[in-house]
Design goal:
Layout: H1 8-18, E1 23-39, E2 42-62, E3 65-74, H2 78-94, H3 129-142, E4 146-162, E5 167-182, E6 189-196, H4 204-217, E7 221-222, E8 227-233, H5 235-247, H6 251-255, E9 280-283, E10 317-321, E11 324-325, H7 332-338, E12 349-352, H8 359-364, E13 368-382, E14 387-400, E15 403-408, E16 410-415, H9 417-423, E17 426-427, E18 431-433, E19 445-447, E20 450-461
Parallel strand pairs: 7-15, 8-13, 12-19
Antiparallel strand pairs: 1-2, 1-4, 2-3, 4-5, 5-6, 8-20, 9-10, 9-12, 10-11, 13-14, 14-15, 14-16, 16-20, 17-20, 18-19
Helix pairs in contact: 1-2, 3-4
Length: 464
């Protein structure tokens, strides 16, 4: 019997039955994906994939403490299941006591759909999108533009069972759309991206119209030197910066004096004001349109994630509340070490509390400044200040007297998102956005545009 003919909940139950360890966690992830790719105003490829990954986490109690062993494999058949469980148990017995050891989670109500078949995506998810995309190709061709891009939709059904009785299930749809428009001579380029759960809320015609405007702006080219400029960061750029901040908000690392959130002299900066704007950076597994897993799914331990926390319920969490640092990410173990509340990471991020102004309205209120399209190749320079560097890409535009007057060269930037929050002069309307740099890892975000009076463009970049 193959992995595909065995129901996910059955393979979880069978693995738990086979377990001889003191504790066991089994996670079955059912993956499916569908995609479209296009270039030069024509579809080039499409495909559909299916797969299953099984993770077994064995825990073994000993005189020195509890050890854990984790083994993950793909396409596991019923015959291969017992060797997988034994491998996890052997890994646990061969390991030293786990620093993050905690009792496995108990007392969580089972998911009513735990025994149901996994959700799957198919090419039918593009039933309305694909014809509309074809119409956009025709408009772009008539307008002298070439469209390139990729649309991807994934569905992951996760089944989590434990020896303490947890039986949990979560279905996570995830769709991304990226479109790049180029002039025929390849000297002008513009990008737009969207995050979606089902491709019913994305409009290729609207994106093509947006890209046509940006290519029009780029017909006038100006050169600017490096320096500090008033800059409008669109939601996608804000998301890329704040996601990195979120990933760096480890409670343990802060308490040990290793991050921007460490307090001089010891402790953390929780309770300190980061910005005078009334901004709240938060996560919520039930956020409409950005729904994510309502319980911890941890395939490995590290940082403030622990396999012992699997199944721990997640709730709405304010990381920054009305400008003040409110929470840092912690597991149960790191919360105990630091004295901070237990606050595992949630798989979405929202910044709100700004004014109800669109990016276009913010442009209209700009005397002179730069308007970015997106950021690229973002990397950390200094964890102590969370100084990041990266590049602008696919369009930096000069705004004069409330209007875009042309495209300027690209830049390398050096900025800390924490400092940017402190210096932000204005935040606009929060909207769903796709972070371009992190779209392979983090897609559920909603951000406003930010006005930064002195964004540091540290050097000129010759990239498109």
């Amino acid at each position: 019997m193959s992995a595909r003919t065995t129901k996910p909940h059955e393979i979880v139950e069978r693995a738990l039955e086979l377990s001889r360890s003191d504790g066991c966690v089994v996670i079955a992830d059912e993956h499916s994906s569908a995609n479209l790719r296009w270039a030069g105003n024509a579809l080039t490829t499409n495909g559909v994939t299916r797969g299953r990954t099984l993770t077994v986490i064995a825990t073994v109690d000993g005189a020195q403490g509890t050890a854990s062993g984790v083994v993950s494999r793909s396409a596991v058949t019923v015959d291969e299941l017992e060797p997988l469980v034994r491998a996890a148990e052997a890994a646990a017995r061969g390991a030293g006591p786990a620093e993050d050891a905690q009792p496995l989670v108990t007392g969580v109500e089972p998911s009513p759909e735990f025994t149901e078949a996994p959700a799957e995506t198919t090419s039918a998810v593009f039933a309305d999108f694909a014809p509309a995309l074809g119409e956009s190709f025709a408009r772009a061709r008539a307008g002298g533009r070439e469209l390139y891009g990729f649309a991807n939709h994934e569905m992951v059904s996760t089944y989590l069972g434990t020896s303490t009785g947890l039986r949990l299930r979560h279905d996570q749809p995830n769709g991304t759309l990226e479109i790049n428009a180029k002039s025929p001579d390849r000297t002008r380029s513009a990008w737009a991206g969207r995050s979606t759960r089902d491709f019913k809320d994305v409009d290729p015609a609207a994106l093509d119209a947006e890209l046509a405007v940006r290519l029009g702006w780029a017909e006038r080219r100006l050169e600017l030197p490096a320096g500090r400029y008033e800059t409008l960061l669109p939601p996608t750029a804000v998301a890329d910066l704040l996601i990195y901040q979120f990933w760096s908000a480890s409670g343990r690392d802060a308490a040990e004096g290793r991050t921007v959130f460490s307090k001089p002299g010891g402790g953390t900066r929780v309770g300190e004001r980061l910005t005078e704007l009334p901004l709240t950076l938060r996560s919520d597994p039930n956020e409409p349109g950005l729904e994510s897993a309502p319980f911890v799914i941890a395939h490995s331990s590290g940082g403030d994630q622990s396999v012992f926390d699997n199944g721990l319920p997640l709730s709405a969490t304010d990381w920054v509340r009305e400008g003040e640092l409110h929470r840092l990410t912690t597991s149960r173990h790191s919360a105990g070490l630091t004295g901070l509340p237990t606050a595992p990471a949630v798989d979405n991020l929202i910044l709100d509390g700004g004014e109800d102004r669109s990016l276009e309205e913010m442009v209209a209120a700009t005397e002179r400044g730069l308007l970015l399209t997106c950021l690229w190749y973002v990397r950390e320079v200094d964890p102590a200040t969370l100084l990041l560097t990266g590049l602008t890409r696919d369009g930096v535009y000069l705004v004069e007297n409330g209007e875009v007057t042309g495209e300027v060269n690209n830049f390398r930037f050096n900025e800390s998102p924490v400092d940017l929050l402190g210096r932000a002069a204005e935040a606009g309307r929060t909207e769903k956005t796709l972070p371009r740099e992190w779209s392979d890892w983090f897609t559920r975000a909603a951000m406003p545009a930010l006005r930064i009076p002195d964004f540091n463009m540290s050097s000129v970049s010759r990239g498109v």
